[in-house]
């Protein structure tokens, strides 16, 4: 995996990122790779927020992975800062080769650099393989997550 680079996403990466978001059972029902306007708008919002890190993994010129890291200052846990990992995706041609672990390790290290005391993430209940993956990396399924659709 030494030929993989991890860097901040740029606007030209958005089509590849959206394609990875849409390339699974759940993403296929909620993503719209044919209309990139909402994704580009979201990208601009992310770019204007210093607590957002939209990241891509690249092999040569190909985007092969992505995740979003959000840093959240807070009062709980004695004023701890936490980070949230979202939108982890690995290109189908790269799955099972350690890239997901490399991305998560990058996110944990970046969280340390941002002085976070906790890294958290959610994973859809329909993704038991992902749950095992995160547990293998040291994450603990300690909470039940709730969402309210607007």
Structural overview:
It is a single chain. The protein has 150 residues and is of the alpha+beta class. The chain is 35% helix and 26% strand. The chain contains six helices and five strands. It has helices at residues 14-22, 27-30, 37-47, 76-79, 99-113, 128-136; strands at residues 4-8, 52-59, 62-73, 81-90, 118-121. Strand 4 (81-90), helix 5 and strand 5 (118-121) form a beta-alpha-beta unit. The longest helix is centred in the last third of the chain and has 15 residues, at 99-113. It starts with a strand and ends in a 14-residue tail after the last helix. The mean pLDDT is 94.
Brief descriptors of the model:
alpha+beta, 35% helix, 150 residues, 6 helices
How do the helices and strands line up, and which of them pair or pack?
Blueprint: E1 4-8, H1 14-22, H2 27-30, H3 37-47, E2 52-59, E3 62-73, H4 76-79, E4 81-90, H5 99-113, E5 118-121, H6 128-136
Parallel strand pairs: 4-5
Antiparallel strand pairs: 1-2, 2-3, 3-4
Shape by Cα distribution:
globular
Low-confidence blocks of residues? none
Question: What profile does the largest beta sheet have?
Answer: 5 strands, mixed
Distance between the termini: 40 Å
Radius of gyration: 15 Å
Q: Please work out how many helical segments DSSP would assign.
A: 6
Q: Strand order of the main beta sheet, please?
A: 1-2-3-4-5
Quick recap:
A 5-stranded mixed sheet has the order 1-2-3-4-5, sandwiched between helices.
């Amino acid at each position: 995996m030494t030929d993989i680079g991890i860097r901040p996403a740029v606007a030209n990466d958005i089509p590849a990122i959206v394609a990875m978001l849409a390339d699974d059972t759940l993403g296929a029902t909620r993503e719209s790779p044919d209309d990139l306007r909402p994704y580009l708008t979201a990208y601009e919002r992310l770019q204007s927020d210093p607590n957002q890190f939209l990241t891509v993994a690249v092999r040569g010129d190909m985007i092969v992975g992505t995740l979003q890291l959000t840093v959240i200052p807070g009062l709980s846990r004695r004023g701890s800062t936490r980070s949230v990992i979202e939108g982890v995706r690995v290109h189908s041609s790269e799955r099972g080769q350690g890239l997901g672990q490399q991305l998560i390790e990058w996110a944990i290290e970046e969280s340390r650099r941002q002085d976070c005391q906790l890294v958290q993430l959610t994973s859809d209940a329909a993704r038991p393989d992902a749950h095992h993956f995160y547990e293998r990396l040291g994450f603990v399924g300690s909470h039940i997550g709730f969402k309210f659709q607007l």
